[in-house]
Design goal:
five-stranded antiparallel beta sheet; disordered C terminus; Transferase(Phosphotransferase), domain 1; two-stranded antiparallel ribbon; about 210 residues; alpha+beta; 4 helices
């Protein structure tokens, strides 16, 4: 994919984006820098230990097809912007969440059960890095269960449980350990689909257990 928007100006981010563009066959794992001006209707949703979550509208939107040597985008696309706290001077190590997804995408063609990481942008005021991710209307598993548990039949419950199990099986087969799996990191999509997200503190099972950094 040709860069449409140019570079972020951050060497670590740009080097990582360039690496995914050159080396990754699966389009889903290829990163791109998107200017913050591309986002409107930005709305704060929640805050975690390491990040703040916003809902936004991406004007150009996600690439959904390629035709006549042009990329076709889904304009005015609703996304989540995950702002990493104090990431102005981000290091290569702090890109772990994106690197884990890149590693997963490079070895697995299907990402039906793992939440995607679309692109990267940057807060113009704080200069913090923001990861562009899917927005799930039904929210996370905790919200879904709290709201609809007694209205969900057992067939649907088991189907969603199967989706979670398949997602875990996929990352475990690639020697990736999530290390922070809970109902707030599992998202509910359309057609009873489930997506495992928040790979921020995941790690390769082949790494030394003595390395706690």
């Amino acid at each position: 994919m040709v860069y449409k928007y140019g570079s972020s100006g951050n060497k670590i981010i740009d080097d990582f984006i360039r690496y995914t563009q050159i080396n990754l066959v699966n389009e889903n794992g290829k990163m791109e820098y998107v200017p913050y001006e591309q986002f409107i209707n930005i709305e704060f949703i929640a805050e975690g230990g390491f990040s703040k979550i916003y809902k936004a509208t991406w004007i150009d939107g996600l690439v959904i097809n390629y035709s006549n040597k042009k990329y076709i985008r889904s304009q005015n696309y609703t996304v989540v912007l995950k702002k990493i706290n104090d990431s102005k001077n981000i290091t290569s190590k702090e890109l772990n969440e994106l690197k884990i997804f890149y590693d997963y995408s490079s070895k697995n063609k299907d990402d039906y059960y793992i939440a995607r990481y679309f692109k990267i942008t940057q807060d113009p005021n704080s200069q913090d890095i923001m990861i562009i991710m899917p927005y799930y209307d039904s929210g996370d598993l905790k919200r879904y269960i709290t709201k609809d548990f007694f209205n969900i039949n057992w067939s649907e419950k088991l189907w969603r449980l199967l989706g979670i199990a398949i997602g875990l099986d996929q990352i475990h087969k690639l020697n990736i350990i999530h290390r922070d799996l809970h109902s707030g990191n599992i998202f509910t999509g359309k057609y009873d689909s489930m997506f495992i997200g928040d790979l921020g503190i995941s790690k390769s099972a082949t790494e030394s257990t003595d390395n706690t950094n």
